[in-house]
């Protein structure tokens, strides 16, 4: 990239639209906002709001490209990809694997193509970072022919965030990314873990879809597949009801009746036992994954925590990583409390593994990838 770029980044979620206008190479955020609670059919209004805000800030003419976060790129789309109708059709089709995420991205892309028809527009995929996962990590142990015929394999998501925070944590620690091994934890409404060796991922917790792995806001993560068979055969469930259970009525929501950590913590403090159990299950799952990934990596230099929950809930960081002294992880309670959203090292000086809180910035990461692709 030789010239300066001004990139509009759109991150369309299931019920919200985040956007940022980023100047590069400085990374300065010129404008940004989070339009929340978009219901079905509300996309036109939300998008008009974004376009109007960009116009009002006098930034419309200066835009050089648009970047879109897309959760699932499937086998075909690995790196950042210039958008055209064919790519859009693929993204739409991959909605079967990411039904909460790809459809809103398509809504955003269609509107952005109409609003800024002369700008290059690029999809950056959450699965992209995990393209080179080793086969032992991408394979499900089911009939090989069935898996091949149906395209059943593990992909991994939140890659934009895992890649970004792994890089930032190395900077915070003053280490070369190529020299260290890390376990990264993205704890937001969606949540996932990754094992990163020398900057490249070797394992991650999400699979074919974003349902696998950690406990999340409304998704429960790992589940014995026998539970699904049981509900189908004996519970009167069909695919649609299972879909609803797994995407909307599981995780913290399913266990405690709320998917928001602020409400969960308030309920625990008010003595709610279901909220307490949900919190403990959430922490227990994180601890299991950290232990497993330390085994995959044969030890690590750092555990990195990010995401809306990871950045904001200090007691969750302390509780989830408690009792891991034998594995070399010791969170320092004072450092942790004072860390805010980071970047900050929150481990004790005696901790063999550094624990680092890093605020993620998917929009900046996307803008950089877009500028790299479209820049001169
Ligand atoms: P997404 O996966 O949608 O990008 P975020 O990373 O923004 O989600 O995380 C959203 C979640 O973070 C919220 O549902 C909430 O549980 C939690 N969260 C955000 N801010 C706070 C806060 N100040 N205190 C406690 N929890 C918070």
From TrEMBL:
InterPro entries linked to this entry: Ac/propionate_kinase, Aliphatic_acid_kin_short-chain, Aliphatic_acid_kinase_CS, ATPase_NBD, Ribosomal_eL34_CS
Keyword ATP-binding attributed? yes
Q: Which residues bind substrate?
A: 69
Q: Please give the Gene Ontology molecular function terms for this protein.
A: acetate kinase activity; ATP binding; magnesium ion binding
Site note Transition state stabilizer applies to: 158, 219
Signal peptide, first to last residue: none
* Active site (catalytic residues): 126
Does the record's keyword annotation contain Kinase? yes
- In this chain, ATP is annotated as bound at 18, 186-190, 260-262, 308-312
**Where does this one sit in the cell?**
Cytoplasm
GO BP terms, alphabetized: acetate metabolic process; acetyl-CoA biosynthetic process
Pathway(s) of this molecule: Metabolic intermediate biosynthesis; acetyl-CoA biosynthesis; acetyl-CoA from acetate: step 1/2
- Name the chemical reaction catalysed here: acetate + ATP = acetyl phosphate + ADP
Instruction: Quote the subunit structure annotation.
Output: Homodimer.
- Family to which the UniProt record says this protein belongs: Belongs to the acetokinase family.
Q: What functional role does this protein have?
A: Catalyzes the formation of acetyl phosphate from acetate and ATP. Can also catalyze the reverse reaction.
Which protein are we looking at? Answer: Acetate kinase
């Amino acid at each position: 990239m030789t010239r300066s770029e001004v990139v509009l980044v759109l991150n369309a979620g299931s019920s919200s639209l985040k956007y940022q206008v980023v100047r590069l190479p400085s990374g300065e955020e010129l404008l940004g906002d989070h339009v929340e609670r978009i219901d079905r059919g509300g996309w036109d209004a939300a998008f008009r709001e974004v376009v109007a805000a960009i116009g009002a800030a006098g930034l419309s003419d200066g835009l050089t490209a648009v970047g879109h976060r897309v959760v699932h790129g499937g086998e075909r789309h690995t790196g950042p990809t210039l958008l055209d109708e064919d790519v859009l059709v693929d993204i739409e089709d991959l909605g079967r694997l990411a039904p909460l995420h790809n459809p809103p991205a398509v809504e955003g892309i269609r509107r952005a193509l109409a609003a800024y028809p002369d700008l290059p527009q690029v999809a950056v995929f959450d699965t992209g970072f995990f393209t080179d996962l080793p086969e032992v990590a991408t394979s499900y142990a089911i009939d090989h022919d069935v898996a091949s015929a149906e395209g059943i394999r593990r992909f991994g998501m939140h890659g934009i965030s895992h890649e970004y925070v792994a890089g930032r944590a190395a900077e915070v620690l003053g280490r070369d990314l190529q020299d260290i091994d890390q376990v990264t934890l993205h704890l937001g409404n969606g949540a996932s873990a990754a094992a990163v060796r020398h900057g490249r991922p070797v394992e991650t917790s999400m699979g074919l879809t974003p349902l696998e792995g950690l406990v999340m806001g409304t998704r429960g993560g790992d589940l014995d597949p026998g539970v699904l068979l049981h509900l189908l055969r004996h519970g009167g469930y069909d695919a649609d009801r299972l879909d609803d259970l797994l995407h909307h009525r599981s995780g913290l929501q399913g266990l405690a009746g709320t998917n928001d950590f602020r409400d969960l913590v308030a309920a625990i403090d008010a003595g709610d036992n279901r909220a307490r159990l949900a919190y403990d299950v959430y922490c227990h799952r994180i601890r299991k994954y950290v232990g497993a990934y330390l085994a995959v990596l044969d030890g690590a230099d750092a555990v990195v925590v990010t995401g809306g929950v990871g950045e904001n809930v200090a007691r969750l960081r302390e509780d989830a990583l408690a009792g891991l002294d034998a594995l070399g992880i010791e969170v320092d309670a004072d450092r942790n409390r004072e860390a805010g959203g980071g970047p900050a090292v929150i481990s004790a000086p005696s901790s063999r593994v550094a624990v680092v809180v890093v605020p993620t910035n998917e929009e900046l990461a996307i803008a950089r990838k877009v500028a790299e692709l479209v820049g001169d």
